[in-house]
Amino acid sequence: MAKRGTYAKGVARREEILNTALTVIARNGYSKATLKQIAEAVGLSQMGLLHYFDTKEELFTQVLRRRDQLDTANFSLGKGGLISRGESSTLHALVKHNSMVPGLVQLYSRLSIEASEPSHPAHEYFRERIANLRVSFAKEIAAAQESGEVPADLDPENVAITLISLLDGLQIAWLYDSSINMAEHVDLLMDRLLRR
User: Fold this and answer.
1) Contact yes or no for 104/67 (Cβ under 8 A)
2) Is it the case that residue 3 has pLDDT exceeding 80?
3) CA-to-CA distance for 94 and 97, rounded, in angstroms?
4) What pLDDT is recorded for position 30?
5) What's the mean per-residue pLDDT of the chain?
6) Cα 40 to Cα 25: distance, rounded to the nearest angstrom
7) Average pLDDT for residues 137-153, to the nearest whole number?
8) Which residues contact 135 (CB under 8 A, 6 or more apart)?
9) What is the pLDDT of residue 196?
10) Domains contained in the chain, number
11) Among its keywords, does the record have Repressor (predicted)?
């Protein structure tokens, strides 16, 4: 019985670390968020923190997974809200939110490039993420075609890849120039897509 209680405490502690790391990185950015800061924020030493996550890369990958879980819940990603215009659009709301958490955008962008190497600890996370978004977005686009909201001659898979590329590319451009309104550019593409 003690083993199960210890396991539950370990899971709870890991969750606390992830939530705290999410906040620290969102506030301080990828470069400035140190293991020491995160460890201190949860009352651990750096070695204590590494008991729960073997490396900084593993911790940051799990932070991105947590961010995805929260974004999916908060913005209905993959639940039929993709194809719409303006502020009611899932993508509009998501990129508007991302502009308020530059540290997480920086983490995602930097880690996605580093993880393109198959040996990187986050490689599988990004590969799975892109594959899942492609399937999810393509399904929503196909459903919107059936209802007449999106032209039938568009290939849902190609549109899904275009949307994913737009989102990732906008984030990189925005990191260089924060005056870029990411939501405005998403709206422009969605408006063109829906108006065709």
Assistant:
1) yes
2) no
3) 5
4) 81
5) 87
6) 14
7) 89
8) 160
9) 53
10) 1
11) yes
Q: Indicate whether 119 belongs to any domain.
A: yes
> Any idea what the CATH number is for the domain that residue 117 is in?
1.10.357.10
Mean pLDDT of 53-74: 89
Task: Output the DSSP codes for the chain.
Answer: -HHHHHHHHHHHHHHHHHHHHHHHHHHH-TTT--HHHHHHHTT--HHHHHHH-SSHHHHHHHHHHHHHHHHHHHH-TTTT-SS--GGGSHHHHHHHHHTT-HHHHHHHHHHHHHTTSTTSTTHHHHHHHHHHHHHHHHHHHHHHHHTTSS-TTS-HHHHHHHHHHHHHHHHHHHHH-TTS-HHHHHHHHHHHHHH-
Count CB atoms within 10 A of the CB of residue 21.
25
Domain that holds residue 138: 55-195
Q: Is residue 66 part of a domain?
A: yes
Number of Cβ within 10 Å of residue 148's Cβ equals 8
CA pair distance 50, 133, nearest whole angstrom: 31
The encoded tokens of residue 121 equal 């600890």
Would you state the pLDDT for residue 1?
A: 42
More confident residue, 78 or 63: 63
Task: State the Rg of the chain over Cα.
Answer: 19
In this predicted structure, what is the pLDDT of residue 77?
A: 57
